[in-house]
What does this fold into?
Amino acid sequence: MAQGSLIGQSLPRVEDDRLLDGAGCYIDDVALPGMMHMAILRSSDAHGRITALDCSAARLVPGVIDVFTAEDWPQDMPVIPMRLIPLESSVPFLQRPLAQGKVRYVGEPVAVVVARDRRTAEDALEFLELEIEALPPVVTRDQALAATGDALMVPEVGTNISAQYQIGRGDIEDAFARADVTLKKTFQSHRHTAVPLETRGTIAVFDIAAGKLTIHGASKVTFFNRAELAKAFNLRNDQVDLITSDIGGGFGVRGELYPEYYLAAEASRRTGRPVKWIEDRREHFAATNHSRDVDCELEIAALKDGTILGMRGQVRADMGAYIRTNGNVVPAKAGQFLPGPYRVPAFACEVLALVTNKTPVGTYRGPGRIEANFFRERMLDCLADELGMDPAALRMKNLLGAAEMPFDTGDLLPNAQKVVFDSGDYPATFRKLLDECDWDAPAQVHSDGRLHAMGLACFNESSGGGLYENARISVAASGQITVSTGSSSMGQGVETAIRQICADALSMAPERITVALSSTTLLSDGVGSFHSRSTVMAGSAVGQAAAELLDQARGEAGRRLNAAPAELDYSDGVFRVMGQSDRSIRLSDLSAMLSDQGGLDVESRYEQAPLGFSFGAHAAHVAIDPGTGDIEVLDYWVVEDVGRVLNPALVEGQTIGGVVQGLGDALYGELVYDDMGQLLTASFADYLLPTSTEVPDIRAVATGDYPSPHNPYGFKGAGEGGIVAVAAAVGNAIARAIGPAGDAICQTPFHPEKILTLLHAAKKGKQ
Amino acid sequence: MSDLQAIRLNVNGVTRAVSVEPSASLADVLRQELRLTALHLGCEHGVCGACNVLLNGRAVRACLTLAVQAEEAEVKTLEGLSAEQIAVTLKECFRKFRALQCGFCTPGILVLAVDLIAANPDPSEEEVRDWLSGNLCRCTGYQPIVGAIIEAAKRLRGAV
Ligand code: FES
Ligand code: FES
It folds into this structure.
């Protein structure tokens, strides 16, 4: 088997066997001897001062072994830090594991009960007496900006603005001065979240005698979380292990360093028992990161022929009550991605992050991109209408071509990190989408009484990042190879991808390779799974570790076979002296011979290269019932160039899954708050997810035409392309379907009532 | 804590004596007392279908069923179906169609599909989508699951 021969093949998934037998091991499947259960008292007020918190009655409940609050924390309670895009101005808004003095959102942890079973712990919460003196809740961006006095989240800071900065490129004044047409609109992307089917959970085991803290149920960024937990509990990194398990969907929200990890660890430290916490679904809606919730005032300047001269605007993100580990990713990416895959020579944007009395916001698949793509792509359709142009032609005219690559995007991030689009021919890939969906065919006549239309959207998308990733490969005397990376399984086939790359790099059958992911016990260091980076970063690290391992093995093999390393052929785990097939040695034998040095065992760090950018486009065909406003998405197409394709079936699965998630987000799921900051949609009865009867036929095409020059395999991430332009494409389709009334399609989600209202208003206007 | 009640549960062909609280759900008893963890809890509210088990051959929500209600019945979980032809074929097709990613929804969907194919050996795509609409999956977008179930039904009819 030659190196490179496995790249591009749809190898079956390693994960399937155990998962299909029901033998997966998710965190709630883990039970440890002597394990206790934790329940968390959460604030039911959005904003208020804690005036009393009496735990004495709860302590007396049979089966309860401990109760604690912020007051009981042994030292200063740790502050949960920002991991990504940290800005100085956000620091005063960081969260601590338990509310201290004040509560700032419904769902904020206030006290912890530990009991012998989950039900006893949950029931005992009723006996905690919490008194809160209400403060004025801030639930909108405008309220956040206007807030003074008691309505401020942290009065000493004097503002509810947690970040504010300016980005841009080119001469924006000149662009608007030269324009034939300018348009200005306000857009909004609603608050929603990922809703993985498995809620969060963890088991903490604090062994004080051994000086060891073990956290089960970790994922995503285990090494960062380990370092922070070690700090919080005065331990060294090597005294803390984070153990990963199967997880029921990550999508960006799972595995961040949430308050509950600290609480479980502290509960275990106090009780000397393993402590398990499993989130229930209602809790999940209030406690796990929300996302999106960004608005944007956007103005565009163009020539009559459709040439875009410039875009300017303001992006305002509602961050909820605290800035969590994802820092300013959501607003920063919403700003950065506004100009998108187009030329846009001049661009100016102010980015604002605002704190409100709602659940904190973090990343959810496509953070900031979903928002930016929706704002920009809707604007482009409005511009096309204004100019009387075909929306496809307008896009074609402005997309960046191969000759313009690499394309320097200018200063679009607050930390001055340079971003360059690496490769691609955006018009060529867009053309493929237009052909797939038959855009240029004459409009079909539909006789079902509904309003039909197609909508388009383009995007590009970064992947990789996160400085570095580690991989370790070891060879057992039995011949079994074990590979570990700092990236963990997020439920989307990372194990399969890693095994495939490792097998390819070692040119051996995938069955001989075992993948052991991301528990901090397996590697000295690592980063994790986010930003569609697992294949790009961990995959590259695996390739590099394999090369180093083979290098080392080749030297050893040469010595043992009395041949120069260059005279050796390698394949399928065996070195052979060229032309002499009887003089050979296996990797496994070499490893056994080296057993006093630990065998063949290589850990390698792949350092970050610049990001790779994929480009893609979506098309949606919708039909709207003019009597009810009902929206049906009948057909959906995605074409994305993902650089070199590792496993086409994995990519297709990710894309189709992403589209359906995006459809649910665009059409149904919304986290709604009332004026008092109460979350009104905290169950599956109120927060709707797409089911099998509501999703259309989806055609996903991944092309590998433009490999990234920045990593050895040419991969670009493929985890987010399915979701990032759904709201944009569906919004454009709806707007085109309802005619002039569609101009007002500026906000997600698209609910039938809103469509009806628009249609009625348009009718009235005509009369 | 309320009084425990001794009941006998027939699970996967074996009768077991367990002591349960009268309000304990079948899901909790199967997962915690009997350590049958293939069924998952996604909502504990009857919406997601991750907890499906067969009760006298029909798929039901174990989170909404009391353990005491299952006393006279025959309970089957995915573990107990593993060797049965319908389940074996379904699993093959799930693998082939990539009908799972994180796998959390999968046991509940397999159990449902066993019931579906037993009741309707030749389901149309629309019928499969209708049955499946009571199960949530956040990863796959359903398309491959629908394909897998139709193909499994076909194979079981001997039509392939
Ligand atoms: S856990 Fe039973 S239906 Fe969701
Ligand atoms: S495979 Fe993850 S929820 Fe269905």
